[in-house]
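User: Hey, quick favor. My workstation is busy. Could you predict this chain's structure for me?
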Amino acid sequence: MVRRRLGRLLAVTVATAMLARPALAHVDYVTDPTTETSDAIAFVRETLSDPVNAALFGGVSVAVLVALALYLRYRPTIRDIEVLRSALSGYDDLIPWMLRLSLGLPLVGAGFQGYLFAPTVTFDTGANPLLRVLLIGVGFCILFGLGTRIVTTVGTALYLFALTVSPDALLALEYLPGFVALFLLGGGRPSADDILLEIASTEGSIYGKIDPVHYLKAFLDDLTAPYRQYVPTVLRFGLGASFIFLGVTQKLGSPARSLAVVEKYNLTAVVPVDPSLWVLGAGVAEVAVGVALIAGLLTRATAFTAFLLFTTTLFGLPDDPVLAHVTLFGMSSALVTLGAGPLSLDRYFESADRQQADAAPSVD
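Assistant: No problem, here it is.
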């Protein structure tokens, strides 16, 4: 009973501490790119030189680390969480549909608005009509689940092309693991691929005689089957890398622009701390979330925290482009559903707990 209460207290403490430092999102999307930058190391040193800032930052950091250590030490079993995990596992078949929505919608929007993945990587739709049509076409095909693996391959090539156009495309790094995960899973259900495969596979089908592509889908399904278990791992690493990149480059690496965001939206009215501590806390929190995702530590809770961070950002920054975050929303939602998957600390702890339970003497 004591361990269960301790588990609830620790879980609430960790979540509260992380949410106390909401993210500033993609700073480049809501600030003037000509804003003078500052030295990150000097910024951190100056911020923590204030005794109040140092005490707040150190106190919250220590509290989170102690709570995490105690939780990992006791790892209490909470019945509600066990039921939640069991319920979420029933939605695994909807993950391809979830990823298709989170990739297809922003691609269609990017094509119509004239940018390559990240809103800061723009192009002239009049001078580049084929690029616009290609983005919209790939987006719609992903949405409908038509030729899913083919168009995700095209989408991957487009993203790599965007990186050659501008390094700002790294702000939309989450597309890359999203494409890889969708390639492994295929269109799933509901999708045009699934419907057409059903029709083409029917004996005597006229469509099956004129469209041999469905055989390629069946072949790729068999080829990727052994690797589908790693979809959560791909999503974890991709989303975690995005968080770390944004925390380091958009917050800690651009403190002047982040401070401009705090001032522009009066964010100190939300969390009444020094603006510099606001920026430092947001950057460190994003890096911490990214590291936890890559390590696969408390994955569902961390992904849910990420989802709340995105939501807080969208409500707090009204002119931040919503479409630029749809992919992040979809990937975090998928991780909440799937959990950590292979190559994760969560899986290691689960295995250790099962071995301990099996080794325990039975009581007749």
